[in-house]
Each structure stands twice: as C-alpha cells, then as structure tokens.
Design a protein that fits this description.
The chain is α+β, with helices and mostly antiparallel strands. The chain has helices at about 25-30, 50-60, 90-105, 140-145, 165-175; strands spanning about 10, 30-35, 40-45, 65, 75-85, 110-115, 150, 155, 180-190, 195-205, 215-220, 225-230, 235-240, 245, 255, 265-270, 280-290, 300-305. It has a six-stranded mixed sheet with strand order 2-3-16-10-9-4. Strands 11, 14, 15, 17 and 18 form a five-stranded antiparallel sheet that branches. It has a three-stranded mixed sheet with strand order 6-5-8.
C-alpha cells in the first residue's frame, strides 16, 4: 500500500463514511437494446424501448461526431484528483495536472472529483455557492475506496490508494510504456437540438486475462469559471478544470464480457447534457478497470470531446 505524503496536503475535515450511497443513475437508464451487435443503454427520458424506436431516435436527429485518439499501441492513463472549491491548497494539484498534461498529452486523462467537506456549497452566500459534486454521492464513495486522507490527492489509474501530487508523475512513469491489454475506441455523437450524447464504445481485447473487468463512463466539463480558495485568496474567477459532472453508468460501472484475445464488445450509452453545461467544454471519459474489489486498476482508458 502506498503511503500518502501529507505535506503540503490539507487534511480532510469531513466526508461521508457510509458504505453505500443511493445512486440515482441506474434508475435513469432504460433497458438494454441490442442492435447490429451493439448494446444500447438509453436514458429513460428519451422513451426509447425497442429497436424501432431506437432507429427512429437516431435517424430523426442531426448528430455531430468526435472520435477519441487511437490507443491501439499505448496504455492510456487516468488521474482522478480529489479536490474542493474551499480547499486552499487544491489549486496546486490542478497546476500539477496541467503540467503533467503538457508532458503526456492525450495519454493522460485527468478527472477532477469534487467531494468531501471542502466541496460543500454555500447556497445562501454570495460566493462558493456552486455545487460541483456529481449527483449520486459517487465522490464520497471513491474517497472511501481510495482512502483519501488529505486534499489535494489523486489516484493514477487506480494503482493503489490516493497520494499527493509529488507522487503522481512517478506513478505515470511506472506504467506509461506498458503494452495495452485492450483497445478502447470511442466515438461521441452530439445532437444540440435535444442536448443528447451518444457515446459509442468498442473494446477489443489484445490478450486474455483471468480477472473480471468493468467499463466506467464519466462526463467531465472543463473551464468552469467560479469561486475557489487559492492559498488563502478567495478567487471569484478561478478556472476549474476537468470537473466530474456525471457518472453515467453507476459508481463502479458495467461488467464486461470475459476478456479473450481478439474478442470485441460494443456498447453505446445515450444520455442528456444538463442545462448550463457547456457541450464544447465537455468530454466523455471511458476506462476499463479490474473489478475484483482488491485492485480496481485501470488497464485502458480513452476520452473524447462531446462537441
């Protein structure tokens, strides 16, 4: 187990410690619809319940398309950072992520998870009133899972417990040259008229592995200008980066078929962009992780803009 370096971390004041948090997102998803060897999982609000309705929904709307980068020869890496707008040292973590992104480019996929006491909004105040937490209590569950003991901390491809920003690059270096176990292709389709996203995932296994794996889907939004405490200064124009907005497919994702070399699985999630979110600054993040509840290691990932 990794040791979390506490300086210059800020200790967590409080966060939820319950083992289970009610999660509304699975109830929002319609039943699975299989069409052309793809499993479609559609938000129930779209009232799509069979293949005819699915075809009509797709064909009657205009979609723009964005494809994710090619990761057929590289292992892409996630960095889930735990942060909060009232955490005075957390901007240092964001600045380190910006630096790392400049080094590792598309291979590194950051996600800013606002959770714990520092993320709680002040709805009656004239500052710090925005709630950056993803609905469903996912952030608090992840804090418990990855033993978050201070802010800012982060976990690189879920290699172990969360640790401080000075350890992130070493974790990245330890896996960046690994041969990938799978190819994760992703294509996003966006219909502005109905604020809908179709995120098409295609997983092709490059090796057979004995573990079980899940697919996780996040939606993030970049460049949200709002209040942030930064080394004692209350900044009303802080640039919040890679904010986790939505966990699309439950806290721990969807179980995948057993990995077998050359086997392919296709899944498409169809969901809404919430009012006020900027589609041009949003990304869908997808990753495959070990689901045996002792590792959680992310073995492949990818991300693509919504628009």
């Amino acid at each position: 187990m990794k040791i979390i370096k506490l300086l210059p971390l800020l200790f967590v004041i409080s966060f939820a410690s319950c083992d289970k948090v009610d999660d509304p997102f699975p109830s929002e998803l319609g039943k699975s619809i299989f069409l052309n060897k793809t499993e479609y999982i559609v938000d129930k609000d779209f009232n799509v319940g069979n293949t005819n309705e699915l075809n009509t929904f797709i064909n009657n709307n205009t979609w723009t398309k964005v494809e994710a980068p090619d990761n057929s020869t590289r292992r892409f890496i996630t960095l889930e950072e735990f942060t909060g707008h009232k955490c005075t040292f957390c901007p240092d973590g964001t600045r380190e992520i910006i630096r790392l992104s400049g080094v590792y480019n598309e291979q590194l996929i950051p996600v800013g998870i606002h959770a714990g006491g520092f993320a709680e909004p002040k709805p009656t105040a004239n500052k710090f009133y925005t709630d950056f937490r993803a609905k469903g209590g996912h952030g608090e569950i992840y804090m418990t899972t990855f033993k978050v003991a201070g802010f800012p901390t982060g976990v690189v491809s879920r290699l172990g417990d969360a640790n401080g920003k000075n350890d992130w690059e070493q974790d990245i270096i330890s896996i960046k040259d690994d041969a990938p176990s799978a190819i994760l292709k992703m294509t996003n389709h966006y219909a502005a008229s109905i604020n809908a996203v179709r995120s098409n995932i295609e997983i092709t296994w490059l090796e057979s592995r004995p573990e079980d794996f899940n697919l996780q889907l996040y939606v993030t939004e970049d460049h949200i200008i709002d209040w942030q405490l930064d080394k004692g200064f209350e900044n009303p124009n802080y640039d919040h980066r890679h904010v986790l907005r939505k966990v699309v497919n439950d806290t721990y994702g969807k179980a995948l078929i057993k990995s077998e070399i050359n086997k392919t699985e296709k899944i498409e999630y169809i969901f809404t962009v919430e009012p006020g979110w900027k589609a041009q600054d949003m990304e869908v993040v997808a990753f495959i992780f070990n689901s045996d509840q002792t590792s959680y290691e992310v073995i492949q990932a990818n991300a693509a803009h919504v628009k």
